[in-house]
Amino acid sequence: MVTTRGQSKGEPTSEPTPTHKRGRRLKSEPKKKAEATPKNSEIKTEGEEKSTVHKKDEKGKEDEEAAEEPPSKRQRVGGRDVPDVYKQGVIERGHIYFFYRPRVQLEEAHSLDEVRNFHMLLIPRPPEFMTAAETAQGSTGIKGKADPEKEEEAEMKVLEPGADAVPSSAPLEQAKQKYRLITIGKKRLPDPEKIGARGGRHKEVFWGTVTAQGDNLDELRSVFGPKEYSTKTRGVRHEAACRLAGRGAYAIVNGAAPTPSKRVTHLGYHLSHPPPEEMGEVQSDLGIAIASSFVVQVKNPLAPATGPQAPRGKGADYPERLMHDVFGSAEGGDKEPTRGREGYGLRFASCETIELMDFTHAQLLMIAAKPGEEGLEESLGEGRGEALSKLEEEESKESIQRVFQELGEEVKNRPAEALEGQWI
Questions:
Q1: Is 236 exposed, middle or buried (0-12, 13-18, 19+ CB in 10 A)?
Q2: pLDDT at 334 > cutoff 50
Q3: Which residue in 17, 344, 357, 373 is deepest, having the highest Cβ count within 10 Å?
Q4: What are residue 92's DSSP bridge partners?
Q5: Which of 204, 423, 192, 206 has its CA nearest to residue 290?
Q6: Is residue 154 part of a domain?
Q7: What segment(s) does the record annotate as region Disordered (predicted)?
């Protein structure tokens, strides 16, 4: 018997309606009590009865298909059957960039104390094997016919462990790209090897807020460029341009979990620039490692802020369906939430769908997970960490000029010393 998520073991599922042949009852079918035939009713012919049976058969098949619906579609929460938006596996991969901006009125920063903002830029990319497949299809110039060698190469990439976490190459000077800018609250990443403020086994944590998102990198020039503004008390104030301090590849992965409360989202990255031998004081002070990973939780915008580091500003304006399906908040005529004890539902949730990070003001709690390449593989699993390490070892051979071109910039227009480990 097929059961669906949220269905108790003893609960019967929909079964196909027993069929008849030429109007004769099956032996196992109980005899029905005769019913009076209405005056205006007509007796069905043999053909009409077959048609009725056929429809019953089709309905039975539909019931079976509904019973076999993938468990990711529905879930049982609080005794109720609700939609399940959780997407298991890699929900996004791409390239990651770390930037910092010196404090107001400073042209340069020479320590963390002189840093005003620290940003993490995520630019999603399709998996590399998809790009390889498209290249194979277009290599012959004949629609629907691929080069056999390139097609075989593309198929091998799909079969490689961790292939779903490997992003395709970043295009050069292409403005039309989706991006997500996350501003880090503590101006540095947490150290996975340090104990957090709560002590015990608790890891360091940090808050991140999605301060900008869009689909055109040209919009970032005003964000990262120099700024001037006037104040009534101090007159004209100047902010120097942001400095690029790191570049690499990342993947966001939702792990398998037996229950919703056990779900965990990991964001892991591996740097290509600077390479290990050029990592310097800048990366050390900002907490940027060659490879690392974090547990990501999304804060419910309706939940009150707690803790000294928690963002106090406006949260993301999520639609009602996400508030209900992810956080379990009361919806429509619901008097009680489907999750949590408060009316707003859960305070935090795993990043069940990447859509949660596509809203400005989204608040993310990131908890240090595992350091180094081994930790990256342990967090992402299934060869993904190793695949990112291999990719970035190759991409580290690219020039710094190319890295800036990925962002539609020229290296002459941006200070590059920080990407070589030096404060500037």
A1: exposed
A2: yes
A3: 357
A4: 252
A5: 192
A6: no
A7: 1-81, 376-396
pTM value? 0.76
Helical (H) or strand (E) element with 124: strand 115-124
Q: What phi, psi does 84 have (nearest 5°)?
A: -115, 110
Query: What would the pLDDT profile of 262-277 be if each residue is shown by its tens digit?
Result: 999 999 999 999 999 9
Extract the tokens encoding 158.
Answer: 């799909």
Residue 232 belongs to some domain of the structure = yes
3-class SS of residue 46? helix
Q: Token pair of 290, please?
A: 């060659």
In tens, the pLDDT along 92-128 reads 999 999 999 999 999 999 999 999 999 999 999 999 9
Q: Please determine, for residue 199, whether its predicted confidence score (pLDDT) is greater than 50.
A: yes
Tokens (6 digits) for 197:
């403020």
Count Cβ neighbours within 10 Å for each residue of 203-235 and write b for 16 or more, e otherwise: bbbbbbbbbbbeeebeebeebbeeeeeeeeeee
DSSP element (H, E) containing 82 = strand 80-83
Residue 330, both tokens: 């009361």
Q: What DSSP designation does 271 have?
A: E
Nearest to 298 by CA among 315, 281, 312: 315
DSSP 8-state symbol, 41: -
Beta carbons of 105 and 238 less than 8 angstroms apart: yes
CA 50 – CA 53 distance, rounded (Å): 5
Residue 210 and residue 180 in contact, taking contact as beta carbons nearer than 8 Å? yes
Q: What is the pLDDT of residues 344-379, one digit of tens each?
A: 889 999 999 999 999 999 999 999 998 899 999 999
Tell me whether residue 138 is in a domain: no
Strands 205-214 and 363-371: antiparallel
Cβ-contact 191, 337 below 8 angstroms: no
DSSP alpha helix (H) spans, 227-293: 281-286
φ and ψ at residue 213, rounded to 5 degrees = -155, 145
Identify whether 18 is preceded by a cis peptide bond (ω within 30 of 0). no
Tell me which residue range forms the domain holding 275: 89-127+166-420
State the average pLDDT for the chain: 80
Place of tokens 């190319």: 402
Per-residue b/e over 350-369, b at no fewer than 16 CB within 10 Å? bbbbbbbbebebbbbbbbbb
Answer yes or no: is 139 within a domain. no
For tokens 């707003």, the residue is 344
Show the tokens assigned to 83. 């939609």
Residues near 131 by beta carbon (within 8 Å), at least 6 away in sequence: 168, 169
Total domain count for the chain?
Answer: 1
